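User: For a reading group we're discussing how well predicted structures match intuition. Take Glycosyltransferase. Before you show the prediction, I'll give you the sequence so everyone sees exactly what went in.
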Amino acid sequence: MTLDIMMPFYGRFDHLREAVESVLAQTDPDWRLVVVDDVYPDPAPGEWVAAIDDPRVHYRRNAVNLGVGGNFRECVRLIEAERAVLMGCDDRMHPGYVERVGELVRRHPDVSIVQPGVDVIDADGARHRPLADRVKDVLRFGGTGARVFAGERLATSLLRGNWAYFPSVVWRADELRRFGFREGFEVVQDLALMLDIIEAGGSMVLDDTVCFSYRRHATSVSAVTGPDGAKFAEERALFDEADARMRALGWSRAARAARHHLTSRLNALSELPAALRAHDPEGRRALLRHALGP
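Assistant: Thanks. Here is the predicted 3D structure of Glycosyltransferase, as structure tokens, for the group to look at:
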């Protein structure tokens, strides 16, 4: 199985170098890497990628800055293989990532989404487990090994708290093209896409074998948009939509999880100290509205 590794880029050069080098170190050589530069002001990172002497590595620079969602959509447009991952330009693949996800796809050829095992690193690359990831551990389905989930059970679990790690997920390319990343969602686009796929009958294989490192740091999109409440406005819009759609399907548990969105409310409360320190009254009001509102 050839895996398309699409890497939207706008960020630190050192993180990009680590991410690309982790792809080059894969034990399974059957991959194609496409770095899509969203007009990062410093040309040096792009020049470094373009100079890599490997026919599997491709570099493209957008004509204009497309933003987070727009660059994801551009990455989808450029996919050629049947399976693809939209890897963060600050994350790391372990050497056996391509090999492991390829094995999972061969064992479960009909699944739409492959979620491999993930660990978390900080800005400096050290392993750590902040509160958000400890909560993910609690919310994620139990069990061991590779197991498949679908339907209302999967939708309910993800709506209670999105425990998936988007940059590590392998998708079916045809479903990425069919559903895509919707306008208006910059932070929760992964959950929106997964719900679209699950509603259409798609399934997920969840694995425990850790083969990917997700980098959590203070300059990520979700971290930056937390204290000002922006990401929670997106979440509220998605939850309201999901509540109606799940009820239309007769998925009462999933609708209830969307309506209550308890972990999202608690997350908003956890951002309050940062909003207070920033002397941001609008952010404070937005967070309280999300946490305590209907």
